[in-house]
Amino acid sequence: MTKERLLLTGSKGQLGRTFTAFFAGSGLTNVYEIQEVDIEELDFTDRNSILSALSFYNPSTIVNCGAYTAVDHAEENEKLARKINDDAVAIMADWSRKEKSRLIHISTDFVFDGRKRKPYLPDDVTNPLGVYGKTKLAGEGYVLNRSGGVGVVIRSSWLYSEFCSNFVKTMLALMGNKKEIKVVNDQVGSPTSTHSLVRLLFSVIDNKLASGIFHWCDGAAITWYDFAVEIQKQAFDIGVLRSKIPIRAINTSAYPTLAKRPPYSVLDRKQTLNQFGIEVVGWREELRRVIGELARAG
User: Fold this and answer.
1) What is the pLDDT of residue 217?
2) Domains of the chain, residue spans
3) Residue 271: what pLDDT?
4) Most buried among 18, 20, 33, 163, by the most CB within 10 A?
């Protein structure tokens, strides 16, 4: 039996690396042959590179984990962010419609402005505050409107893993080297491990009838300060950290950044849980798994 081709973009990022690490055990290998690409094989800033790679691999399903995710740098590099998060997605969506391929695209909580004070639903009004959110929202539109009605957008938030750079690894490094740290305590969101997001991706790929927007996170409604406190607690408990240091709560105004962040960006995942029958795993348990992976890696 000839297998379908699944093209994974952004394969060297933290989500792509997690996807690749667990694909063999996903049950999808009976149907799909995975093709992993990153900038060397598919350059999101080059239209010809994108079309050439798509034509060469000719996938029946594209999982787009590639993105410009440097939120603050995007404010100074809008042209580059737009090429990667906006223009490149349009090219992939047009190709998908023409070739009857399915495009699954990862987006962000930053498409919202944070004025709401209860978890955001997939059909809530969007209003991004910065370049990153605006370019990601534009990419969403192409997936939903240009890919033949079978496009999927998965919005996620505060993504972390044992791979690449992220908040958890940054906090652990600071906690191991500083006498105290200060962390913002007036931005509320929900951490998401790449492990749980990849499990959702496998379910979405398996359900070929699923389309539209889905929200995913690990179910918390906490601040960055709360997250840092839990990171230190778990890391100390399992011996990743030898001692604890004071963590000071500060307001966003005391930590100015180029990009404005939504003060509240918790995503409502109920619809996603119901549609795909996913087992609920709490955010602390997901964090424990990642810190455990970091401990094993030394």
Assistant:
1) 98
2) 4-165+192-218+266-281
3) 96
4) 18
